[in-house]
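Tokens for chain A. Residues wanted.
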């Protein structure tokens, strides 16, 4: 074994998986929109720049194939709409529809409830430190 403390790393990995499972709400039974679809929908709705599939791939850290599938699913549910560019008909940006805005209004508290729970039960300093460290870790792992 290269790492004599690998058992400790396995334990930490388990803690990370448990945290992720608790912090990321799954869609509840009967809900037609998955957590990953909601994540994309929030990003389309809140972005200050034009949202393209490439932007979403980078922002969400998932493959182009999964991005395409999510876009297709949200478009089929009429929650987002593609706006084709005049220069290249294959290129497009995404906008949220009125139905998509309603979906966000209906789902945001359920989806964000674990974060509200953390915020209410941690000091503001600890809560901000947690996300500072998560951003730092994301930058390292994205390289």
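Reply:
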């Amino acid at each position: 074994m290269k790492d004599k403390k690998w058992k400790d790393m396995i334990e930490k990995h388990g803690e990370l998986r448990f945290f992720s499972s608790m912090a990321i709400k799954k869609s509840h039974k009967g809900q037609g929109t998955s957590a990953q679809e909601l994540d994309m929908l929030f990003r389309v709705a809140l972005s200050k720049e034009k949202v393209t599939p490439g932007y979403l791939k980078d922002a969400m850290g998932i493959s182009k194939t999964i991005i395409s599938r999510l876009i297709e699913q949200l478009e089929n549910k009429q929650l987002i709409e593609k706006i084709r560019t005049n220069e290249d008909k294959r290129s497009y940006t995404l906008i949220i529809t009125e139905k998509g805005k309603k979906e966000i209004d209906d789902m945001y508290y359920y989806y964000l409830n674990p974060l509200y729970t953390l915020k209410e039960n941690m000091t503001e300093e600890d809560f901000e430190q947690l996300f500072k460290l998560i951003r730092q870790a994301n930058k390292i792992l994205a390289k």
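The chain has a mean pLDDT of 90. The chain has six helices and two strands.
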